[in-house]
Specification:
The complex is a heterodimer. Chain A is mostly beta strands. In chain A, 13% of the residues lie in helices and 39% in strands. Chain B is globular, with a radius of gyration of 20 Å. The chains are: A mainly beta, B alpha/beta.
């Protein structure tokens, strides 16, 4: 893993192995998730990979009924909407992801900002088109 | 840090636009010719188009919408302006706000005295799903789009964050839509120039004509809360919280201040100008404000030497209703967390103390992405010169402001205009 460049290709490669990883800049100590090839504080590229707990909380969300093409292909529609959110991880950074295990019929009551969630992984597509996506599940 | 300003003044002396809507059979160039002709007619003392020294157009994606990249020289040719410099700038929904800024800088630098600004977009040739995909290329294709986000979804994030922090409800957003439709009904250029109440009646008539049960609603709010009539797109953003898919073109004529009097006795001096950028939604410290807009507004007020309370007429970028709410706070008209109360109290209506989007806004007037920022300037031009007809905002409108966002708010451009006579 040490040879992996600190970028989105590596991030998604690690996700495909069910690993959620960020990188820490050794000069500034700043932690990045998603990873970046350069620290925007120190301008140093001296990075090292660092795993995260996958624990976080919802800081903003929506329930999408009119889905983009790739989500329609994944089976979503007006009849089968999904929750997309921004989750702030315990380690500090925040990331966009789908939220699983929430009641979408009454979003106002069912989904709350501050809800604790845990990272999980979704597999979509088959064969060469197979791809792993980050998602979060509500912690019961 | 000292305020950095243009080396010389720039004035707006002409403004024209097509109606916004869907226009089968008319391409971007055809639309721009219409806007150009209306702009020519708006220049009080007339002028010779051969005096134009540069063209700057804002266009988001003729590349994907029409299969035509490299639009600037084609547009220059359409209005007979070759061989002058012709440039296209792209800044998502702020493309023509940026074109205006580039034209201001061209004159301010001394490189030209007369510059034509264009804003143009032709979206409706593609099926709606493809239009959505083209628009989605302005959100983060690496980290936002894979999570299933759409533009309504990204602005819905701001809405849920705002509701949670300050206590606004989806009704607040509905009231913005009702207000903008009220304004748009008075604008002959508006794509959806109908009150929500008119839309209710037309839906009832359509149901009766088809022999179906006629739906009943007690009020406009009741209609907007009806999941059938006003379905969710990305909760809490519903259909009537979203601006439409539109075609349109806009043309503005800018000149060096010292020659403005040979074009008109009522020029608008562009005294404030600001531009900002920001990170994608997931990287932001706050989701209840758009930092790029605050930065752009601070620069604009500083360069103009005026404060928010001095502004008399204002067009903001309501691509979604939540964006108007955040805009009136980012522009300093209301304190953070108090904008929604102002909307509830009707303070932002056309005849209220802080009129916002007298044109109907993007919501009712339409949102042809690359034409939108320049389109806002047309409204301010008409209002400040007392030429807005039945939707004229009352009072001495000596200062006007336009607020144009790009994408999810990763770019923002603000301009302030002054009428001195």
């Amino acid at each position: 893993m040490s040879e992996l460049p600190f970028n989105s290709t590596s991030y998604y490669h690690l996700l495909s192995e069910h690993k959620l990883m960020g990188c820490r800049n050794k000069t500034s100590g700043k932690f990045y998730l998603p990873p970046r090839p350069m620290c925007t504080t120190s301008y140093s590229s001296d990075m090292e990979w660092e795993p995260v707990s996958g624990k976080g909380e919802i800081i903003a969300f929506t329930v999408i009924t009119v889905a983009p093409t790739h989500m329609i292909e994944a089976g979503y529609s007006r009849e089968n909407p999904y929750c997309a959110a921004i989750v702030r991880l315990q380690e500090g950074p925040a990331i966009s992801a789908q939220i699983l295990g929430v009641d979408l019929s009454m979003p106002e009551e069912a989904i709350k900002i501050g809800t604790p969630v845990q990272a999980t992984f979704i597999e979509r597509g088959e064969g060469p088109a197979k791809r792993i996506y980050l998602a979060f599940e509500v912690v019961q | 840090m000292a305020v950095k300003k243009l080396r010389r003044g720039v004035a707006l002396v002409g403004a024209g636009m097509t109606p916004f809507g869907t226009f089968p059979g008319l391409n971007t160039r055809d639309l721009f010719v219409q806007a150009f002709q209306e702009m020519r007619a708006s220049v009080d003392k007339g002028f010779d188009p051969k005096d134009i020294e540069a063209l700057v157009i804002g266009n988001y994606s003729s590349t994907m919408f029409e299969g035509q990249n490299f639009m600037a020289p084609y547009v220059a040719d359409a209005v007979g302006l070759t061989p002058i410099p012709a440039s296209r700038v792209e800044c998502a929904c702020a493309s023509s706000g940026l074109a205006l800024r580039q034209a201001i800088m061209t004159i301010g630098s001394g490189l030209a005295d007369v510059v034509l600004v264009g804003g143009l977009e032709k979206e409706s040739d593609l099926p709606i799903a493809r239009v959505t995909d083209v628009l989605a290329t302005a959100s983060d294709s690496i980290y936002e789009n894979p999570a299933g986000f759409t533009f309504p979804g990204l602005y819905a994030l701001l809405a849920t964050a705002y509701m949670d922090r300050y206590g606004a409800t989806p009704e607040t957003f509905m009231k913005i839509a009702i207000k903008n439709h009220e304004n748009g009904v008075l604008n002959p250029k508006a794509q959806f120039g109908a009150r929500i109440a008119d839309i209710m009646v037309s839906k009832q008539k359509a149901a009766a004509k088809r022999g179906k049960p006629v739906p009943q609603w007690d009020s406009e709010l009741d209609f907007l809360k009806d999941d059938q009539a006003n379905p969710a797109i990305a909760w809490p953003m519903r259909l009537f919280d979203c601006s439409p898919v539109s075609d349109g073109a806009v043309s503005l004529l800018l000149v060096a201040e010292e020659i403005a009097s040979s074009f008109t006795d009522k020029p608008l001096h562009i005294i404030g100008y600001g531009q900002g950028s920001d990170v994608p939604t997931y990287e932001r410290e706050s989701l209840t404000t758009i930092k790029a807009a605050r930065v752009a507004a601070e620069q604009a007020y500083a360069t103009a030497g005026v404060t928010p309370k001095d502004i008399k007429v204002c067009e903001v970028h309501d691509c979604f209703t939540i964006a108007e709410l955040i805009a009136i706070e980012d522009l300093g008209f209301f304190k953070p967390g108090e904008g929604y109360k102002a909307i509830e109290e009707g303070l932002t209506s056309r005849l209220g103390p802080r009129p916002i989007n007298s044109s109907g806004g993007l919501k009712s007037k339409g949102h042809p992405v690359g034409a939108t920022g320049a389109g806002q300037v047309v409204e301010v031009f008409k209002q400040m010169r007392g030429e807005a007809g039945p939707r004229q905002v009352p009072g001495d409108l000596n200062l006007g402001l336009t607020h144009n966002l790009g994408g999810s708010g990763m770019a923002a451009i603000v301009h302030i205009f002054e009428r001195r006579q």
